Structures are given as structure tokens and as C-alpha cells.
Amino acid sequence: MSKYLRSVPIRALMIGIAAGMRSQIPGAVLAWRQDDAPFYASWRRWPVLRSVWGRRVLMLSAAGEVIADKTSAVPPRTKPGPLFGRMLFGGIAGAAIGSERRGKGPLVRGALLGVLGGLIGSYGGMRARASVAQITGLPDQVVAVFEDVAAVSIANRAITKR
Questions:
Q1: Residue pair 61/92 in contact by the 8 Å Cβ criterion
Q2: Could you tell me the pTM of the whole model?
Q3: Alpha-carbon gap, residue 63 to 40, rounded angstroms
Q4: For residue 43, what is the DSSP state?
Q5: Inter-CA distances, 73 with 70, 79, 136, 142, Å
Q6: Cβ count within 10 A of residue 37
Q7: What does the angle CA 36 – CA 57 – CA 105 come to, to the nearest 5 degrees?
């Protein structure tokens, strides 16, 4: 993969997109991959990620979101509240990726790119999911499982530098 596509800004945008698709997935993947993080990545030393219980809570919240997403009780992701949450979690995850560089600048740029990615992932994920369901005739819940896998894959790829 090209060096450009593995750059911190692109990876921060990617993890934000994953947050737009599933808001809790980036935190869970950061928690899961905490031990694999580059030594110089300051996010690996964030209190919630240093704590075994913090990592467990992040992973459980992602599992809960994946399950809840398959119900009709979840409001549309583009409503103001859910959209803000996805952008917020995208910003936090983007800041984590940005923390792999020294200084406040990369951290802030990572957060901003994560917020943008959260917006892109929210609308793009919604449109892609609806389109796939319409084209294939598969039930929305089945297509949602594919979206879960895509969000985890994107977040995981954003975290791994190779």
C-alpha cells in the first residue's frame, strides 16, 4: 500500500469514517489493539486504554451498539444527536491516530479529520446500506452485519500502520 495511504491524516480520516458507521467500533478496536500500538503513540497510554476494565467497557459498548443497531429502537444516525455522537467519537479516535506524531498540531488535525470522517461515514454508510439492501433485496438487518464488518475492518486498518 502506498506510503500516502498509510499516513496519519488518511488513517485519522479512516477511523472517523468507521465511527460514522458504528460510533463505538473505533474505541473498541483501539482497546483491542492497544498492546499492538506503536510505542510512540500516546493514545496507548490514555487512562481508559491503559485500564483492563476501561478496555472491556469500550469493547462491550461496541458489542451493545452492534446488537442494538439491528432493532427499530435506534434513531437514524443522521438525526442531530446520533450524528453529533458519531462525529465526537470520530474526533476522539482521529486524535488517537494523530497522537502518533509529536506535538499538539497532529493531535488537533487528527481530531478534525476524525470528525470529518464521522460525518462522511454517517451519511455514506447510511446510503451504502440502503443501496445494498435495495439492489440485493436482502433484509436491512443482514446488510447491517456487513456494515459492522466493514466498520471493524476500516478501524483496524486505520490503527495498523503497515
A1: no
A2: 0.93
A3: 29
A4: G
A5: 9, 14, 24, 17
A6: 20
A7: 55
Contacts 24+ apart (CB under 8 A), 108-116: 109/9, 109/12, 110/8, 110/9, 110/12, 111/12, 113/9, 113/12, 113/13, 113/16, 114/12, 114/13, 114/15, 114/16, 114/19, 114/90, 115/16, 115/87, 115/88, 115/90, 115/91, 116/13, 116/16, 116/90
Q: Pull the grid cell for residue 49.
A: 486504554
Query: pLDDT tens digits, the chain, 162 residues: what are they?
Result: 566 668 899 999 999 999 999 999 999 999 999 888 777 888 988 999 999 999 999 999 999 999 998 888 889 999 999 999 999 999 999 999 999 887 788 889 999 999 999 999 999 999 999 999 999 999 999 999 999 999 999 999 998 866
Cβ atoms of 144 and 65 closer than 8 Å: no
Annotate 89-116 with three-state secondary structure: HHHHHHHHHHCCCCCHHHHHHHHHHHHH
